[in-house]
Design brief:
binds heme C, Immunoglobulin-like, alpha+beta, 2 domains, three-stranded mixed sheet
Amino acid sequence: MTALALVALLALDWFPRGLEPIDTGAAPASAKTCAGCHAGTHAEWARSRHGLAWTNAIFQREYTDKPLDWCVHCHAPLKEQLAQVHAGGGPLANEGVTCVACHVRGGRMVARTRAEGSPHDTDARADFGSPAYCGGCHQFNFPVVEDDAAGRPTLVRRYTAHPMQDTEHQHAAGAKAAQECLSCHARASTAGHLFPGGHDAIFVARAVTVRSCRDRHALDVALTNTGAGHNIPTGDLHRHLVLRAWRASAPERLGEALFGRRFEPAADGGKRDALDTTIPVGETRHARFRLADLGGAAREPIRVELRLVYTIDEFPFRGRELAAPTTVTMFADARAWTALPRCAPR
Ligand code: HEC
Ligand code: HEC
Ligand code: HEC
Ligand code: HEC
Ligand code: HEC
């Protein structure tokens, strides 16, 4: 293979996809060393999920249950961060997906373009920040966990053929494939480094269009993915939507519908989807609630609420409580049956 072909091949894969930590080819600089000159960028990153990828309560709860190096390879991905984690933790590990994990390779700064007057020896690459680049961490299959020498299930050396997080692929297969991830996630903040997603209440509320109508004896709620460039929800396998309809005087008859994924063992060693009711780009899913089932008084408003849940357990049981919210409300409405429009024939 020629040297040129080798360089092209390396450029295709920016990330070891969880199988190894990232080696940037230089002693890693802390995000703090960038803050002096990139204050706005640093401030956004510090409160982004990238900046919080290691320390956030939701991740830490799951990691405490399954403390695999594999998790560290994406949530605090530098090899120096892994060394700190092995030594009991440290400030660099706490930076999660830090600046240099995305921006330094082979000891050089990497970006899409180099600004005039930049002090950095920047390697400008057109595919920096492309969907394939983001997929380096946002697209991977179920792992096969093997026993280590001491017989503990801690080693991840290979993947099954079934996606655990499928965001890059959903994007490529969807109607908005021509819009880069950055066109939604980086253009949403001044310095482009907040990367709002499921944890941003306003961003999330714009993702789904909710329409309710009365269809003979049932309330029909249609959820359309009008705002995202991939399924809703995407990302972490525990994410799901909960849609509820009820009347305040009859809470015991609350109707509920879930949109998410369920899993079963796969023949190749890990798991696979047994059910997937996430909503693809541009598509609509319906939930129906029979009026008679809802109870309450005839003129009483029917409340409809849609939530995104981050965790497998919306209401964590004792000992699994979280210091962070486990859900965000995407939509809420209350209308009397007669105030709802009739459904168009389908
Ligand atoms: C001494 C000031 C200074 C420090 C420290 C600094 N930068 Fe920069 N950087 C700049 C300037 C000036 C530019 C030119 C564009 C601009 O003004 O944002 C730039 C541009 C960049 C670019 C865009 C590519 C380019 O070369 O134009 C990236 C990416 C970048 N910096 C990352 C970082 C990271 C990551 C750190 C910390 C490890 C860092 N910088 C530390 C001053 C600095
Ligand atoms: C998840 C990966 C990721 C992380 C973490 C990250 N960046 Fe970036 N950075 C990008 C991408 C992608 C772009 C290109 C943005 C664009 O074209 O809109 C970029 C662009 C830049 C630029 C060029 C100017 C701009 O905003 O377009 C600078 C400067 C920069 N980053 C600095 C930093 C600093 C400093 C940090 C840490 C505080 C950081 N980045 C963390 C992915 C990242
Ligand atoms: C080095 C690995 C890595 C890279 C590269 C990366 N991400 Fe992430 N990203 C993560 C991790 C890990 C999280 C989740 C942190 C958490 O909440 O625990 C995350 C979270 C996010 C979120 C927030 C999700 C939410 O629910 O709020 C968005 C949006 C996002 N990333 C978009 C991108 C885009 C767009 C790119 C490409 C420019 C990118 N990421 C590149 C690892 C990465
Ligand atoms: C057309 C705009 C758009 C594009 C393109 C887009 N996203 Fe999103 N993304 C959204 C919206 C809106 C949400 C909030 C809805 C949600 O949480 O699913 C979101 C949520 C997310 C989340 C949080 C997971 C979740 O479902 O809660 C991640 C991670 C993410 N996007 C990553 C990416 C990556 C990686 C790409 C490119 C491969 C990308 N997005 C392309 C709009 C977009
Ligand atoms: C190949 C990269 C990769 C590996 C390995 C990985 N993750 Fe993640 N993880 C991500 C990305 C990317 C996201 C962001 C998607 C989202 O926000 O839904 C994420 C999100 C999460 C979330 C959701 C956090 C939130 O803010 O809601 C949890 C919890 C989590 N990961 C736990 C783990 C645990 C525990 C392990 C190891 C058993 C692990 N992850 C391994 C890439 C990875």
